[in-house]
Write a structure and sequence with these properties.
By secondary structure, this protein is mainly α. Helices cover 65% and strands 0% of the residues. The protein contains ten helices and no strands. α1 packs across α2, α4 crosses α6 and α4 packs parallel to α8. The N terminus is likely disordered.
């Protein structure tokens, strides 16, 4: 049954969940055009073809709406990451390739980009170094078929600590890139050299 609201570009959603998803999709388009900091509920309402009051019905404030957008992006990113990393066979391969993939994809993903761009504590805390980001990364690693116990990764805390190291490195690379940017292969070799000993037990090359 239609939710019965006017507007919606002449095509009202049939369910409450469909309405929420349309608002989330419209917000993503606004963020792609204007960036997260310039996106407002008025922008979103105009994009959807409804009043601000209609948007408020589903999302009481902008923070809640942005969190919903980020959550949707996180779920999609998680699925893509698992597909991309399916061929990883060792813990080192899994860590290195997940970092390279994330650093290439995150700047192009506006929904995940919310976690990086919105610095307000009330919205997303510390972004890439938040507990939410650590849990997202841990979900990626846990889903890979590699021998984590062989490198001392057994518990949920182990996974989240490993992800914390990875996230802090990625945040540094993304926010403070070197004067001469590394190619993906150069960055891959750099990360393998310095993280390899921790994940293989061998000496630093």
């Amino acid at each position: 049954m239609s939710v019965g609201h006017h507007g919606w570009g002449g095509d009202p959603p049939r369910t409450e969940e469909q309405a929420r998803q349309r608002i989330i999709t419209a917000t993503t388009r606004c963020i792609e055009r204007m960036g997260v900091r310039r996106t407002t509920l008025s922008n979103v309402a105009e994009e959807v073809g409804v009043t601000r009051q209609t948007v408020y019905r589903y999302f009481p404030n902008l923070a809640e709406l942005l969190n919903a957008v980020a959550a949707t992006g996180a779920a999609d990113f998680l699925e893509r990451s698992r597909t991309h990393l399916a061929g990883a066979r060792t813990p080192l391969d899994a860590v290195v390739e997940s970092m390279i993939y994330a650093m290439e994809e995150l700047p192009r993903e506006p929904r995940i980009g919310i976690l990086l761009e919105a610095g307000e504590e009330t919205l997303f805390g510390r972004g890439m170094t938040s507990s939410v980001a650590f849990e997202l990364g841990a979900q990626v690693l846990r889903g890979l078929v590699v021998d984590w116990p062989s490198v001392g990764v057994h518990t949920e805390d182990d996974f989240e600590e490993l992800v914390e190291v990875m996230m802090r490195l990625m945040a540094s690379f993304l926010q403070h890139p070197p004067a001469t940017p590394r190619t993906p292969d150069e960055l891959r070799a750099f990360v393998r050299r310095w993280l390899g000993p921790a994940l293989t037990g061998g000496p630093i090359a």
